[in-house]
Amino acid sequence: MDIFGRNSVCMRWCLLLVGGFLLLRPAVAAAAGAPGYAEEPVVTEYDPDPDWPKYPDHISSRGWTSGMAIDSHEHIWFFKKGPDPVQVYTVDGDFVRSWGRGQFDNPHHLRIDHEDNVWIADFGLHVIQKFTPEGKLLMTLGTRGVPGEDETHFFRPTDMAITPEGDIFVTDGYGNRRVVHFDRNGKFVRAWGHYGSAPGTFVLPHAIALDSQGRLYVADRNSGRIQIFSQKGEFLEQWSGLIMPWGLFISHDDRIWVCGSSPHWWLRDGQYPEYKDQIFMRFDPQGYVRQVWTIPLGDIGDDKNNPVTDRLRPGEAVGVHCIVEDSQGNLYVGDIYGERAQKFVPIRRRRKTDRTDGS
Questions:
Q1: Could you tell me the fold of the domain covering 45-347?
Q2: pLDDT band at 12, cuts 50/70/90?
Q3: 336: alpha, beta or left? (left if phi > 0; alpha if psi -120 to 50)
Q4: What is 237-271 written as a DSSP string?
Q5: N or C, which end of the chain is more exposed by having fewer CB within 10 Å?
Q6: pLDDT score recorded for residue 25
């Protein structure tokens, strides 16, 4: 038998070096009887709330949910490509209001500014529009129904970010490949970017958001990267190879949430796979990943443009497109092909029904 008591003694004794002498002492069985899981979890899980939102009988749930935002009252707004495009609910799922029937062609992202005005990107009409919370039109950027690439035209714009001072930054992304800056009165200031894979160029700028320092984060979706710029258009850095970023949300304390799917080339072997899975990822402003959560990719049949949505179970999604976090850490996610807005509740403590038998 070797010095450690090969077959049995090593389980009961350990060697200590004290004052130059080797001493034997009994060893405490490591984690004897302890469970194989954390009784106090060190990760946060999320459960879907199947009762959110509570659609009234006169409001349709149909259509892509492509844009989401949260206002100063913690009302959750979402933008749908359906009969009732702008819809608003409380965090508990109660209906607040809806407007916009017949006003939009291809709804995309929706944002709320610091005065609770509502901004929408309609890439079908080539415009960015500003509304009151009740739906009164206040401003239009771009020329309705006319594409272009100059100071007064967009070509299928995707998103907008509004600073506390009122400056507007637009990702002119599906047709053009640029970011366009306007002042608070809608006057053109500058534009930057063109098609390319180099830093500061874009493959498809799909979403844009601002952090508390005024830095601009651009989700260059089809290249699988997030690019960061100053408000003068200076390239600062990029985070690549982590996620295909479809939607961006940045809280007032700089919790940077991104929704999308695992990285891929977008075009490979003649195929255009939009997504392989459904991922939420939270960054800090330094680019460190602080949280990752995945949800199941749902089954809507073979034709995503004519989805069979009644197959979907709570928590599944097909084409996550936008994400919002409220002050309690609840996540709200919209997907396009699943045509749903969903609430995900953080689970940080074990329930009494969880097993505690050590398995």
A1: Neuraminidase (2.120.10)
A2: very low
A3: alpha
A4: EEEESS-EEEEEEE-TT--EEEEEE----SSBTTB
A5: C
A6: 55
What's the angle, vertex CA 102, arms to CA 309 and CA 186, rounded to 5? Answer: 110
Give the containing element (helix H, strand E) for 322: strand 320-325
What string of DSSP letters covers 124-175? TTTEEEEE-TT--EEEEES-TT---SBTTB-SS--EEEE-TT--EEEEE-SS
Average pLDDT over residues 196-216: 98
Cα distance between residue 105 and residue 142, in whole Å: 15
Q: Does pLDDT of 267 surpass 60?
A: yes
Distance CA(337)–CA(317), nearest Å, equals 8
Q: Which two tokens stand for residue 10?
A: 């090593």
pTM: 0.90
Q: How far apart are CA 228 and CA 218, in angstroms?
A: 6
Q: What is the pLDDT of residues 73-123, one digit of tens each?
A: 999 999 999 999 999 999 999 999 999 999 999 999 999 999 999 999 999
Concatenated DSSP letters for 188-229?
A: EEEEE--B-SSTT-BS-EEEEEE-TT--EEEEEGGGTEEEEE
Q: Start-end ranges of CATH 2.120.10.30 in the chain?
A: 45-347
